[in-house]
Amino acid sequence: MQANHPIGIFDSGYGGLTILRQIRSMLPDYDYIYLGDNARAPYGSRSFETIYEYTLEAVKWFFKQGCPLVILACNTASAKALRTIQQKDLPGLAPDNRVLGIVRPTSEVIGDMSEGGNIGILATQGTVESESYLLEIEKFFPEVSVFQQACPIWVPLVEYGEQDNPGTDYFVRKYIDLLLKKEPRIDTVLLACTHYPLLLEKIKEYMPVDIQVITQGQIVADSLADYLLRHSELTERITREGQMDFYTTERATTFNRQAERFFGTEVGATQVHKL
Ligand code: DGL
């Protein structure tokens, strides 16, 4: 029997499931393995060193599971750990494997979505402080202005299943208002955290109707499909049985209960006790 060599999808918790959902619907034949580091989420306000350490542990775990390709489906990990892992760790760990993030593919297209050239970024504190979106978007769209707002409470609200409750409205409105105060001409807002699509309904309620709100799932799926086409030597190493396995560093029963809201269908996760 052929060993399984899936694509690894990583997030600090549940958010990456919103990305896997779109990837899987676009590329259903590949095998996937999802890991949520729920026991240590949220990553958003942690230091560079801690996010790097946790993300590297996860990447090594994926490689042990046989993944030739790992996607950091987490903006915070992509912004704070990806570059160091790609440049410093990967050559010694597994030079033929690849680790990709989601900041760059999003930055490559987001500038084309804004008519007026004023883009708002809502993200975790870690992503905002890294300035990754400012730097990356500038490379592809130097004429576009980018304004950022950290939303530190949003991820815990979503992780604890509070996204539809009335108390959440206050915090959703608060960060939208703070962002729009920075530049009222913003016409496009990127939800640059994979947890935020769960708040989409509430975000739309408080966002002026003429501002479009962009989520990343489809962008990342399109970019991955294109990447796999262009890198056949890597693509050939990924197995295609249409299998999906879910892992969490927290209790599996809790993960399964919450995950459905992010993934759309039931999942049966296994707990990993140590990465
Ligand atoms: N889902 C992660 C992201 O896209 C952040 C969650 C966290 O703070 O752990 O940034």
Notable characteristics:
globular; Rossmann fold; binds D-glutamic acid; alpha/beta; 47% helix; 275 residues; six-stranded parallel sheet; 2 domains
Walk me through this protein's architecture:
The protein has 275 residues and is of the alpha/beta class. It folds into two domains: 149 residues, Rossmann fold, CATH 3.40.50.1860; 112 residues, Rossmann fold. It has 13 helices and ten strands. The strands form two sheets. It has a six-stranded parallel sheet with strand order 4-3-1-2-9-10, with helices on both faces. A four-stranded parallel sheet has the order 6-5-7-8, sandwiched between helices. β1, α1 and β2 form a beta-alpha-beta unit. α1 crosses α11, α2 runs parallel beside α4 and α5 packs across α7. The longest helix is centred in the N-terminal third of the chain and has 17 residues. The mean pLDDT is 96. D-glutamic acid (DGL) binds next to α3.
| N/C terminus separation | 27 Å
**Mean pLDDT score:** 96
Q: Which CATH architecture of the largest domain? A: 3-Layer(aba) Sandwich
Element-level helix/strand string = EHEHEHHEHEHHEHHEHEHHEHE
Q: Indicate the CATH class of the largest domain.
A: Alpha Beta
Outline, from the CA principal axes? globular
Rg over CA atoms: 18 Å
Q: Fraction of residues in helices?
A: 40-55%
Give the strand order, joined by hyphens, for the main sheet: 4-3-1-2-9-10
Low-confidence parts: none
Per DSSP, the total helix count is 13
Molecules bound to protein? D-glutamic acid
